[in-house]
Amino acid sequence: MALLRERAPTGRAALPGPLPGLALAAAAVAAAWAVHLLLPGVPLLTTALVLGIAAAHLPRLGPVVRGRARPGLTFAGRRLMRVGIVLLGLALGLDDVLGLGWATALTVPAVVGATLLGTWWLGRRLGLPGDQPLLVAVGYAICGASAVGAVAEARESEERDAAAAVALVTLCGTLAVLVLPLLQGPLGLGDAAFGRWVGASVHDVGQVVAAARTAGPEALGEAVMVKLMRVALLAPVVAAVALSVRRRLRHPAAAVAPGAAGGGARRPPLVPLFVLGFLAAVALRSTGLLPGAVLGGAHAVRELLLAAALFALGSAVRLPSLVRGGGRVALLGLAAWGVVAGASYGGVLLAGG
User: Does the N terminus or the C terminus of the chain have fewer Cβ atoms within 10 A?
Assistant: First the structure.
């Protein structure tokens, strides 16, 4: 009996449940929201990510993040990210995409493909570990941290790989907000063309808005529409990743792969459920039946959920490990930034920018 009494507290400490982590994520989102209200130019999602990284390295809070809060933070980084991605589909209507014209509609997938393949290839050549090359590539090519979370979920990537990719993509996207407006004049881009360039090259939706609105409402409208076209490509990319995982698991060697202990690894669905939800949300938005108040509410909820998920992913970042591979990571970030900016600029010119 004495032995049982000694073990019980240990068991409870080992399995604290999700509440401590979810409470911590909620407090961080409230703090990030306050910062955004005081400084509207600072994106909510970027602030949440930075708070997560900071929390993981504070002397007193770091052990909590790695211990009692970890189950809830893992839940937020995965489950809440899924719901946020589904709600992201309500921002995209098919009529908006068709309104951009065929030239732009053809250019955007080409830019996404070039960025995705080029960044993934370079990451592999630089020797980045695990799924980091793929996750960084989809983050740059499609929609930043949301794309990283979606592909990491479909591929069942290590949390540290997703966290490192989110940190790099968010950092470079934030730098793009500062740098791209300075290049509009030297590159000879009108407001509409500049908006399309921003929409095709900046990673996160909030960062696109922050960069494009410096050139006025016309640039902002074009940027958001092009960006949402990139978001629409999230579904086929995630489906392709899930299909590649299923094919890999058909081979006998996959039975002894990491995470497939003893053989009989679980095959992911061909199209993850949250991707189907994303497509359903796009279809629902395209009907025009949803009033503006509902879409506005969905936007607010989406931002809060994604902020909680990004705080959770940020809390998994370990700066010492990033510093050890810092040269390669920085090189990949800068090179991928050049790829997406250059390909997007060429696409804007070809499309009549």
Answer: N
Indicate the Cα dihedral angle 129, 133, 139, 140, nearest 10°: 130
Percent of the chain with pLDDT over 90: 8
On whether the pTM is more than 0.70, the answer is no
Work out the angle between the directed axes of helices 292-314 and 159-183 (0-180°, nearest 10).
120
Please give the single-letter amino acid code of residue 25.
Answer: A
Structure tokens at 89: 């589909």
Q: Which DSSP category does 257 fall into?
A: S
pLDDT at 15 over 70: no
- DSSP-derived letter for residue 267 is P
Q: Do residues 218 and 249 touch, judged by C-beta distance below 8 A?
A: no
Tokens of 333: 């970030």
**Computed over its alpha carbons, how large is the radius of gyration of the chain?**
21
Is 104 exposed, middle or buried (CB count within 10 Å of its CB: 0-12, 13-18, 19+)? buried
Q: What is the largest CA-CA distance in the chain?
A: 80
Name the token pair of 10.
């240990």
Tell me: the pLDDT tens digits for 147-201? 888 888 888 788 778 878 887 887 787 778 778 888 888 988 888 889 889 988 8
DSSP state of 247: H
> How far is C-alpha 328 from the chain's CA centre?
21
Alpha helices in 233-291 (DSSP H): 234-250, 273-286
Tell me the mean pLDDT in the region 124-142.
Answer: 87
pLDDT tens per residue across span 273-296: 777 888 888 889 888 888 989 999
Answer whether 150's CB lies under 8 Å from 311's CB. no
CB 152 within 8 A of CB 242: no
- What integer pLDDT is reported at residue 249 of this predicted model? 60
Dist CA 149 CA 272 (whole Å): 13
> From CA 51, how far away is CA 310, in angstroms rounded?
9
**Cβ neighbours of residue 232 under 8 Å, at least 6 residues apart?**
92, 97, 282
Q: How many residues does the chain have?
A: 353
CB burial class (10 A; 0-12, 13-18, 19+) of residue 218? middle
